[in-house]
């Protein structure tokens, strides 16, 4: 198949899923064309069958805001015409479902089919905003196929937007050969020179991720267990998380590493992964941690329970239960046998249910169904 993929190229779960999917589809012999304003992260290595088409964002003095969405729609139509795309697969409803619809209309008869994958905040935050509610609903209803990354997100979309058309749940996935303990950064001592335990948080530091809770949980863990905390990513709450760590006297125990591309190297050395989000439609970072055999301690919110099996591959507690999350992390870190059991179960669950082979096959079958009008 000739597949056009559009996503946000910046660091974020939806961009990661789109890039990984494109690479996997290309390995299976499909031609994949990414259309975006910047090369999506995780697509930095050349791969046969993957092409990147950058949109031209003309800056003209009349435009206070260059019309990105129109430029994207025009580029999607151009790429579709030149490369004979069978379908557009867009990730994140706003604006990509709309630019997909516009591109289809520009192409006239028999345009590529449009599949929209809903990732989370496009429904739970942006879509709920009055400005975007109607247009998000329109984008979903006019797509030829719609997928959601969890049962939770499917239900929320149907309920909030009164959508009756079928939404296919296709979960996120992980390449378990890339995400494993073997791939961990060799020099663990660089982070934990005295053999401390390593706690890890990876996110875009938006308020929904509650990064301040991460620091507070760690502060409690540290009272019982010698440990360090690695905070990976960039975003609006990074500065306040860093200030809190300083205020709590943890500056030498918490390392803010900023944006990292080879995330598997860090995930592979962690002992516990912390994800205390307000809401998480899926929690790709938790899945990647599980694939590396890292137990997850997080919140019992949204679709996270579909990924992390409470008590088997980690612990999920109510949002904001800092004491509870810290207690569970301490329990895991102090009992090596318990850690081993959770770690093995985490890796096993990631491989059995969320391996790339299995999930990418589901996408292929879904593409075929939509292409045949089913
Ligand atoms: O919040 C993020 O991490 C970014 C956001 C995105 O769309 O880029 O992530 C959402 O999509 C991810 C991939 O499907 C999911 O794993 C995340 O759970 C989801 N984030 C939220 O629901 C907050």
Given as residue ranges, the uncertain stretches (5+ residues, pLDDT < 50) are none
* Overall pLDDT: 95
SSE ordering: EHEEHEHEHHEHEEHEHEHEHEHEHHH
Number of strands: 13
Largest sheet, strands/sense/barrel: 7 strands, parallel
Class inferred from helices and paired strands: alpha/beta
Helix content: 40-55%
**Bound ligands, each once:** ligand GMT
Query: What is the name of the CATH architecture of the largest domain?
Result: 3-Layer(aba) Sandwich
Query: What overall form do the CA principal axes indicate?
Result: globular
CATH topology of the largest domain: Rossmann fold
* Number of structural domains: 2
What is the number of helical segments per DSSP (H or I, 4+ residues)? 14
Radius of gyration (CA) equals 21 Å
**CATH domain class of the largest domain:** Alpha Beta
Q: Give the N-terminus to C-terminus distance in angstroms.
A: 17 Å
Beta-strand percent range: 15-25%
The CATH homology group name of the largest domain: Glycogen Phosphorylase B
Major sheet strand order:
3-2-1-4-5-6-7
């Amino acid at each position: 198949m000739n597949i056009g993929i559009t996503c946000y190229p910046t660091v974020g779960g939806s961009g990661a899923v789109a890039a990984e999917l494109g690479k996997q589809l290309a390995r299976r012999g499909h031609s994949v064309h990414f259309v975006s304003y910047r090369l999506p992260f995780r697509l930095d290595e050349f791969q046969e069958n993957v092409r990147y088409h950058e949109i031209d964002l003309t800056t003209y003095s009349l435009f206070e805001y260059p019309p990105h969405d129109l430029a994207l729609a025009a580029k999607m139509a151009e790429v579709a015409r030149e490369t004979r795309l069978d379908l557009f697969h867009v990730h994140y409803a706003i604006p990509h479902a709309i630019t997909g619809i516009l591109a289809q209309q520009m192409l006239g008869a028999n345009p590529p089919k449009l599949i929209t994958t809903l990732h989370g905040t496009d429904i739970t935050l942006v879509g709920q905003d009055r400005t975007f509610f109607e247009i998000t609903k329109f984008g979903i209803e006019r797509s030829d196929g719609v997928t959601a990354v969890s049962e939770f997100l499917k239900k929320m979309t149907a309920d909030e937007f009164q959508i009756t058309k079928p939404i296919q749940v296709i979960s996120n996935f992980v390449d378990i050969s890339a995400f494993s303990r073997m791939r961990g950064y060799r020099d663990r001592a660089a982070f934990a020179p005295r053999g401390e335990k390593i706690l890890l948080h990876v996110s875009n530091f938006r308020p929904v991720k509650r990064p301040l809770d991460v620091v507070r949980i760690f502060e409690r863990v540290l009272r019982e267990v010698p440990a360090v905390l690695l905070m990976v990513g960039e975003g609006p709450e990074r500065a306040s998380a860093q200030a809190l760590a300083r205020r709590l006297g943890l500056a030498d125990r918490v390392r803010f590493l900023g944006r990292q591309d080879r995330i598997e190297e860090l995930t592979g050395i962690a002992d516990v992964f912390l994800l205390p989000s307000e809401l998480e439609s899926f929690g790709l970072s938790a899945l990647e941690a599980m694939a590396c055999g890292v137990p997850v301690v997080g919140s019992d919110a949204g679709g996270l329970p579909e990924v992390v099996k409470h008590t088997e591959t980690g612990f999920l507690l109510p949002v904001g239960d800092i004491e509870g999350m810290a207690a569970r992390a301490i329990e895991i870190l102090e009992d090596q046998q318990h850690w081993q059991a959770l770690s093995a179960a985490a890796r096993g669950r990631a491989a059995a249910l969320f391996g790339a082979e299995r999930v990418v096959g589901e996408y292929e079958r879904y593409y075929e169904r939509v292409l045949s009008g089913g």
